[in-house]
């Protein structure tokens, strides 16, 4: 359609007369014409045709004609005196009336546009027209009386130098509508690319471009032809000022007008030693020195420094005695700081001992109070909110990208939802989920209400989604020539958007086809779009299973769906881990000293309640923040149970095993013993849990929403877990200890077994194995240095690997392993030839009526060198740092 419109300004048309040879000798010399004026109008094509005229050029006297000639063809106008041309005023008026489309495409570069006009001005109006043109064939309009002849086919001899200069001045002119080069639209598809000859041939040869009204045989040569001369009009480089223009082309359309691109300092060469990263080599070198020095010391100690060796007596006896004397003197005065820490530890011990006595003496009241608190806080889950939107998860509300996105959404509306598939040849876009929601109800229709077709970015839209056109035997030529360059929705289709993995610019070699369907994302359409997308994904998955084509697909809701699906599958994992941990705690806490006391000394109830307390702490954390309106993420639900379970089980072991190994005085009651135990272990538990809580709350200072919310929930969960353990768990432990001392069975506490023998020792099986075997193996004179060397090796390997760490979140890692999105991400990364759209938004506050503001925002000739489009164009010349 664009080619047709470009051609509409010419004053030729196709006739139905047969081609015939010339019957008389034509003059080909300066001052003679090939045609003059318009003599035949074809109402079917709405085009005027020229009359053959091989006589001297006529003087142009009409003022309007002279004005148009001065504007369009100043080189032919000269000084305006005695102007002779081979075109009439009506031809010039017709030409001017139809120059809108060419000006729209290349008029932003005055030099290019002037050279383009010169090409047609010389052919249409030059007074020396006959020296480089020839009416190769004439037609006859027999409807007139007498019959009128008109030009049917024209020979046009063009100097190759002119054609190359014309092409060079226009080849970089961009088309603001598509963002591509203007010649990509009006040069055709050539295996060797667009050049001067190919461009002029495409514009004039009807055999390769059926939008051309009639054939013009461009003789593109550097030597003479059968005509006396070659047309070689003046041309202007894109960085030169053409007559009648304000200046040369802009940097956007002429690289020669651009300033020197900023010098980007080269990336520093990686620090290498012997061909390897310097840090890695240093770590390896340091580890080797450490192993050598440590091994030397160990061997020397074993050889010369044993206590029964005379060197040990000579070298170390006096030193050891001196250190022992200093230590004795130091114990007498420990300093103010040590006294303060001891005082704090004593006060904390007294506090936890008093707390333990209260809880152990009133177990049921404490348990009831704890259950009440958990239920009260847990009711907050009725108001829970879960965030699955990746934007809300990983981008800070105060980040520059988020602020810009919010500004764009507020002023231009949310960006379109996109439904994308790859490697798919044909899509039936009339698919609907119900009788009430179809794609046509939610899709983008940029030309509505004139054109109500959906925006459908696909190869099939080159054929206007017509099966007949697609199945045509000449589909390749149709795709290049006959098909409309606009899709069915009224807009263009860029090849790099719908074709992937193609060979440079030869799109027919592409191996991947892309279908992209933008969907309106406003507050009214989005809920319906979400429902449509759900059924669309189900449909595509079923379609993929039933066909042999390889299809990678995605919808706007896909990422959220897959994250939610992954969380649902983790429920079983969480429950299974708690069951396993319950079994382990119950087994490890039990003291199985004899078969008669197995069900008395077992800790199944204690283990179950301990794990239940961990779950209660998580419920309290989720509930209290739900009350506060803090949104939780699926990451919290997945990770938090494992984290709090690992931390909480440690405290359970500390309290229970400390009680099991304690030797209580004969007059001390069970409650007093448990209170004393809590006074001994409570301070260390408080410091450990407190430091973990503070660490998590410090993490909440992060601006990343997912990290912030996780840190808040985790810190609160650890804190609640500690509070429940030093209160509710102590009460449960007191009840269990009473049961054990009264020889009642675990779980079935109403059944007593008085025949059970008293335990001979209080060492559990795990404690016994650790003390008798593992500790001896660990403290062996050979094992100790070996363990240090192995641990140091692991640490060195970790340090040496630091340079290989990459910062960032790979989106594939957040998906389940069986997710269809993994294939989609990999296909997009390897095959798609275009990236995400980039928008440059100018905020309000400027007066766009002012000339200086307009010049700062425009990108054509006459605009500022540092205008916004110019700066973007400058940055695009450095593709690697700017990624434009």
Automatic annotation (TrEMBL):
GO terms for cellular component: endomembrane system; plasma membrane. Pfam families: NPC1_MLD (PF22314), NPC1_N (PF16414), Sterol-sensing (PF12349). GO terms for biological process: cholesterol homeostasis; cholesterol transport; intestinal cholesterol absorption; lipid metabolic process. Residues 1-17 form the signal peptide. InterPro entries: HMGCR/SNAP/NPC1-like_SSD (IPR053958), NPC1_MLD (IPR053956), NPC1_N (IPR032190), SSD (IPR000731). It is found in: Endomembrane system. Keywords: Disulfide bond, Glycoprotein, Lipid metabolism, Lipid transport, Membrane, Signal, Transmembrane, Transmembrane helix, Transport. Belongs to the patched family. This is SSD domain-containing protein. The lineage of its organism: Eukaryota, Metazoa, Chordata, Tunicata, Appendicularia.
């Amino acid at each position: 359609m664009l080619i047709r419109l470009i051609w509409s300004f010419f004053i030729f048309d196709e006739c139905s007369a047969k081609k015939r040879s010339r019957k008389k000798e034509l003059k080909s010399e300066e001052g003679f014409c090939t045609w003059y004026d318009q003599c035949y109008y074809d109402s079917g094509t709405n085009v005027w045709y020229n009359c053959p005229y091989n006589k001297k050029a006529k003087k142009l006297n009409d003022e309007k004609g002279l004005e148009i000639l001065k504007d369009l063809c100043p080189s032919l106008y000269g000084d305006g005196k005695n102007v002779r041309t081979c075109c009439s005023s009506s031809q010039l008026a017709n030409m001017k009336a139809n120059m809108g489309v060419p000006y729209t495409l290349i008029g932003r570069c005055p030099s290019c546009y002037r050279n383009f006009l010169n090409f047609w001005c010389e052919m249409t109006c030059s007074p020396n027209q006959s020296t480089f043109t020839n009416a190769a064939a004439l037609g006859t309009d027999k409807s007139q009386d007498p019959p009128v002849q008109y030009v049917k086919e024209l020979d046009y001899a063009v100097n190759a130098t002119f054609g190359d200069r014309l092409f060079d001045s226009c080849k970089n002119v961009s088309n603001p509508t598509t963002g591509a080069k203007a010649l990509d639209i009006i040069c055709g598809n050539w295996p060797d690319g667009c050049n001067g000859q190919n461009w002029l041939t495409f514009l004039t040869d009807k055999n390769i471009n059926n939008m051309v009204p009639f054939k013009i045989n461009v003789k593109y040569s550097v030597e003479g032809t059968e005509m006396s001369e070659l047309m070689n009009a003046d041309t202007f480089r894109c960085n030169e000022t053409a007559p009648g223009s304000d200046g040369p082309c802009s940097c956007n359309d002429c690289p020669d007008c651009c300033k020197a691109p900023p010098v980007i300092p080269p990336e520093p060469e990686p620090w290498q030693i012997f061909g390897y990263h310097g840090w890695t080599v240093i770590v390896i070198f340091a580890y080797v020195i450490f192993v050598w020095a440590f091994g030397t010391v160990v061997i020397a100690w074993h050889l010369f420094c044993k206590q029964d060796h005379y060197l040990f007596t000579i070298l170390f006896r006096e030193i050891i005695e001196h250190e022992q004397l200093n230590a004795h003197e130091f114990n007498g005065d420990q300093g103010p700081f040590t006294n303060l820490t001891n005082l704090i530890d004593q006060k904390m011990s007294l506090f936890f001992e008093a707390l333990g006595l209260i809880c152990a003496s009133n177990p049921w009241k404490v348990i009831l109070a704890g259950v009440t608190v958990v239920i009260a806080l847990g009711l907050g889950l009725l108001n829970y909110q879960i965030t699955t939107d990746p934007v809300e998860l990983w981008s800070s509300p105060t980040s520059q990208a988020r602020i810009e996105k919010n500004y764009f959404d507020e002023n231009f509306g949310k960006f379109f939802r996109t439904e994308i598939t790859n490697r798919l040849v044909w899509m039936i876009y009339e698919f609907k989920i119900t009788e009430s929601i179809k794609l046509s109800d939610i899709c983008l229709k940029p030309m509505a209400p004139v054109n109500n077709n959906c925006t459908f970015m696909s190869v099939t839209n080159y054929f206007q989604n017509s099966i007949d056109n697609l199945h045509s035997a000449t589909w390749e030529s149709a795709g290049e020539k006959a098909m409309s360059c606009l899709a069915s929705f009224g807009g263009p289709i860029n090849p790099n958007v719908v074709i992937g993995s193609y060979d440079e610019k030869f799109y027919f070699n592409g191996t991947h086809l892309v279908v992209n369907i933008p969907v309106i994302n406003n507050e009214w359409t989005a809920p319906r779009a979400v429902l449509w997308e759900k059924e669309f994904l189900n449909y595509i998955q079923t379609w993929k299973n039933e066909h042999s084509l390889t299809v990678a697909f995605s919808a706007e809701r896909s990422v959220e769906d897959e994250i939610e699906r992954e969380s649902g599958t983790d429920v079983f994992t969480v429950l299974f881990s708690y069951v396993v941990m319950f079994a382990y705690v119950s087994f490890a806490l039990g003291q199985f000293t004899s078969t008669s006391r197995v069900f008395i000394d077992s800790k199944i109830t204690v283990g179950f309640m301990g794990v239940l307390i961990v779950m209660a702490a998580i419920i309290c954390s989720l509930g209290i923040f739900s009350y506060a309106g803090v949104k939780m993420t699926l990451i919290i639900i997945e990770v938090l149970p494992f984290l709090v379970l690992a931390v909480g089980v440690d405290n359970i072991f500390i309290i229970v095993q400390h009680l099991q190994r304690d030797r209580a005085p004969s007059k001390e009651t069970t409650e007093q013993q448990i209170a004393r135990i809590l006074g001994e272990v409570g301070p260390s538990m408080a410091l450990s849990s407190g430091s973990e809580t503070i660490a998590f709350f410090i993490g909440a200072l992060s601006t990343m929403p997912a990290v912030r919310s996780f840190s808040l929930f985790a810190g609160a969960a650890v804190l609640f877990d500690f509070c429940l353990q030093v209160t509710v768990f102590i009460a449960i432990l007191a009840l269990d200890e009473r049961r054990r001392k009264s020889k009642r069975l675990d779980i079935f506490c109403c059944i007593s077994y008085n025949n059970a023998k008293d335990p001979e020792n209080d060492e559990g099986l795990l404690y016994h194995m650790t003390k008798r075997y593992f500790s001896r193996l660990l403290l062996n004179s050979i094992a100790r240095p070996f363990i240090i060397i192995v641990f140091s090796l692991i640490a060195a390997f970790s340090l040496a690997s630091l340079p290989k760490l990459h910062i960032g979140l790979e989106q594939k890692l957040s998906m389940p392993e069986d997710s269809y999105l993994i294939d989609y991400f990999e296909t997009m990364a390897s095959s798609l030839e275009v990236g995400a759209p980039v928008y440059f938004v100018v905020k309000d506050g400027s007066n766009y009526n002012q000339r200086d503001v307009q010049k700062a925002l425009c990108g054509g000739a006459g605009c500022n060198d540092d205008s916004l489009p110019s700066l973007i164009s400058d940055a695009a010349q450095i593709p690697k740092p700017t990624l434009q």
